[in-house]
Amino acid sequence: MNGPIAEVVFDIPLHRAFAYLVPPAVSVARGQRVRAPLQGRARVGMVVDLREGDATGLLAIQSVSEPVPIFSRAALELTRWVADESLSSWGSTALALLPPLPARGAAETLAPPPEGRPAAGAPPELWMAARRADRLVDLLAREPSPALVIAPDIESAARWARRLDAARLDSGIPGVERRAAWFAASRGRARIVVGTRSALLTPLPPPAMLVLLDEHDTAHKPPGAPRLHTRDVLLRRAALEGSRLLLLSATPSVESWWRAEDRQIRASQPEPGPWPEVLTADTRGVLRNHPLTLPLTRAIEELSRRGRQVALVITRGAAALACDECGSVLRCPECGVALALSRAERTLSCRVCARGEPLPEGCPCCGGHRLSPLGWGAERVEAAVRRRFPRLSVSRSDPGANVVVGTAALLGRLGPGSVGCVGFVDVDGLLRVPDFRAGERAFEILWTAAERVGGAGRIIVQTRHPQHYAIRAVREQDRAAFYKNEMRFRAELGYPPFRRLCVVSTRDVRPGGGQALIGECAERLRGLPDVTVYGAVRQSPAAVARARWRAVIKGPPDLPRLLDAPLRPFLERRRRGSAVVEVEMDPVSLS
DNA sequence: AGCACGCCGACT
DNA sequence: GTCGGCGTGCTC
Fold first, then answer.
1. CATH code assigned at A64
2. A134 domain residue, yes or no
3. Where is average pLDDT lowest: A5-19, A330-344, A472-486?
4. What is the spatial distance, in angstroms and rounded to an integer, between the CA atom of A581 and the C1' atom of C12?
5. How far apart are CA A23 and CA A251, in angstroms?
6. pTM of the shown model
7. CA of A39 to C1' of C3 (A)
């Protein structure tokens, strides 16, 4: 019995499509959302292909979710690419990039997405200069072409939508409005739309402009589908449809800087502008019974006399060890990341290769006897400042206090121009985060603070590494110096952007199960060409205490292709007894 | 014999 | 992800 057959993918971890008969009363196209029976109940899926064939024994599509396709052919292909790149299923990827389903009986004006021809466009642009946000607002006001602006989170999307007087596509607004904005953009009726990653594939009539705010922000890759960095999806989208793409960040990811050097992205080096004085306060050899060094104490004194605010940035619990004498951090000799301290087990272990070591007696560098793991918590800093400056208002929550204490996120909440000095109580806490991106993150936070306080302000960095290249680059307002050093480190030890990473992890409520499973995964991957598997070492039964196991995999740029076949059984059947497998391509964090 | 639970494969 | 089939093993 021949008839029209639709291939449909669903939000399940299976990559394969399911075939259904298209009944005569229903008309469907590729890229259309439909309801179809799966395991006896109706579920929403995406039509990825249509063909004529023998429909004997096939179940029928029940209905369409909307009367028109919601993805263009190009967008649908893009979801497939994202799924393949991230080792996730086509269905879960595609369905995560769509607006909510319509409310029952809602009246809507819908149109199919524009089917643009692939066009050769200009290369993406990296905007790093100060006042890049103002420049963007100006550009969007001048430019007549439709624009999609992607923000790292809902709050940022809301702010930008207000600033640009644009429709919102993020999940911070009611589903009806999101849908309306999606289809308005699709029909060319909303010139500027603002959203988060769920809005990445919003159709726009060409020639369109795509904008990524805070390109470096790891919030652009939260857990869950679509499991690829928003930057990478936009780069691909822009290339496929020939759209102009703007990446905004004062401190771009090393990946994007590298692409700029490789001429895949256009970047102009901004002229140096007004810049604060960046002072380092060396804490080596200083007995640290107080969180404030003399330079920072003086700055608080002086600034408060002049009626200016001081922000003190603290670092949350650093789980690594550093020598009090020479300042060196205990690092894995093979992987270069700080060794993570487990106080309970009194061991140090590497987050990348899983190498474990007992706590050393002294510093391997200088033989010093004091190795200190402690950072300064917000409470301790707040109390210490109060004691020293009883007349000043000191707060962790009031952004108007004379002295405000908080983590790096605090900097974003303070009004521009109000802060005269930012003091980093323990920047080493950032540098010794057991993650290869620790330096990049420290650089980003310091640079942001410097931009924030501006030319009349001051930055004071308390550190045992006053010569660290991240601090030096911020002091000199010299981005290139930072990236040069950082890329050398990444190249030497084989980290992104030179090699790609994948993390396979297992969990089990019962001891031993997770270990057996991660061992099984690692076994399948060993011996692949140009692929290194770290960790997942089978340990003696005595060491079996944790419920979580992890293997870090390093490989060439086509790592997802290499891992697809051997990991397929684990990706498609994540639960093995009480143990669960998770696979994360291109992790934004290893801690 | 009858039922609970957990493992495992199938899902069009 | 979610469902149900079926085997193991316990209970009435």
1. 3.40.1440.60
2. yes
3. A330-344
4. 40
5. 54
6. 0.93
7. 7
Among residues A480, A551, A471, which one has the least CA distance to residue A518? A551
Give the pLDDT score at A362: 87
CATH code: domain of residue A442 = 3.40.50.300
Tell if A568 CB is < 7 Å from nucleic strand C. Answer: no
Instruction: Point out which residues pair with A582 in neighbouring strands.
Output: A505
Tokens of A134: 């103002």
Which among A223, A196, A253 has a CA at the least distance from the CA of A88? A223
Burial class (CB in 10 A: 0-12, 13-18, 19+), A103: exposed
Q: With 0-12 CB in 10 A as exposed, 13-18 as middle and 19+ as buried, what is A391?
A: exposed
Host domain of residue A466: 277-318+374-491
With tokens 């009944």, the residue in question is A23
A570 touches strand B (CB under 7 A): no
A503: β partners: A552, A584
Q: Which nucleotide across the nucleic acid strands is nearest to A19, CA versus C1'?
A: B12
How confident is the model over A240-292, as pLDDT tens digits?
999 999 999 999 999 999 999 999 999 999 999 999 999 999 988 775 678 89
Q: Which nucleotide is nearest to A36 (CA to C1')?
A: B12
